[in-house]
Amino acid sequence: MELEKVSEQNNAIPSVLRQLHTQGETPEFKEREMMMMNTDILIQVLLLLLGLGMVFAMHSFPKKLISNMRLRGRGSVQAKRHFVLGAQLLARARSAPNRTTALNLAKDANNEADKALSFDPKDAAAHILKALAQDLQGHKTSALKSLDAALSPPAVKSLSDRERGDALFKRAELQISVNRRRRVDSAISDLIESVKLSQENSKAYCLLGQCYEQKEMKEEARRAYEGARNVEPNSVAAREGLDRLGS
């Protein structure tokens, strides 16, 4: 009996194989087989394209990164070039023989500052150059805005303590010239910080003394003038301030 069962199973195997072979000859089976082959080919093509894309990305990304770094480097050099040219024009404007020439040179210095800022908007020095050029042209409110930009993040981070102290002094000076009565408190705040950061600026001490005098804070004014005299013993403004206070 067992031999007969094995024989029947063996006989069944060729029958199944013949059935599969027969199905392979039918149009439906051939169509399914063709669809499977097309799907395999499509998957292989997609994998190939994906691989090529990854290789391209791996090679092009460092090039783009280096290119951006080079552009930033060139921008920084260009910014410094325009800043130096603007500073030279401003120096010439301050020593110009007449006001017309001074105004024209100051305007050119302002333009160079704008060009420097177009390459590096975070450069506080260019903002300060712009403020000084605007002040020389008589545009004090605009100069204040430029100094505000220089003394605000992120530009202020590029200044040393002494440079920041000098910029604060200049801003206080402009605040007083624009509106002494309304801006005296802001000026005092800037000047207190200025003399901490730039202790050798006798003019900042003197202006601080004048602001305190305006507010009738005589003791504070006296200390400010004495600070100026300690820095510059021959300071006329400090001596006159102390004389007014009866010292």
Automatic annotation (TrEMBL):
<feature type="region of interest" description="Disordered">
    <location>
        <begin position="225"/>
        <end position="247"/>
    </location>
</feature>
<feature type="transmembrane region" description="Helical">
    <location>
        <begin position="41"/>
        <end position="61"/>
    </location>
</feature>
<dbReference type="InterPro" id="IPR038906">
    <property type="entry name" value="TTC36"/>
</dbReference>
<feature type="repeat" description="TPR">
    <location>
        <begin position="202"/>
        <end position="235"/>
    </location>
</feature>
<keyword id="KW-1133">Transmembrane helix</keyword>
<keyword id="KW-0802">TPR repeat</keyword>
<protein>
    <submittedName>
        <fullName>Tetratricopeptide repeat-containing domain</fullName>
    </submittedName>
</protein>
<comment type="similarity">
    <text>Belongs to the TTC36 family.</text>
</comment>
<keyword id="KW-0812">Transmembrane</keyword>
<dbReference type="InterPro" id="IPR019734">
    <property type="entry name" value="TPR_rpt"/>
</dbReference>
<dbReference type="InterPro" id="IPR011990">
    <property type="entry name" value="TPR-like_helical_dom_sf"/>
</dbReference>
<keyword id="KW-0472">Membrane</keyword>
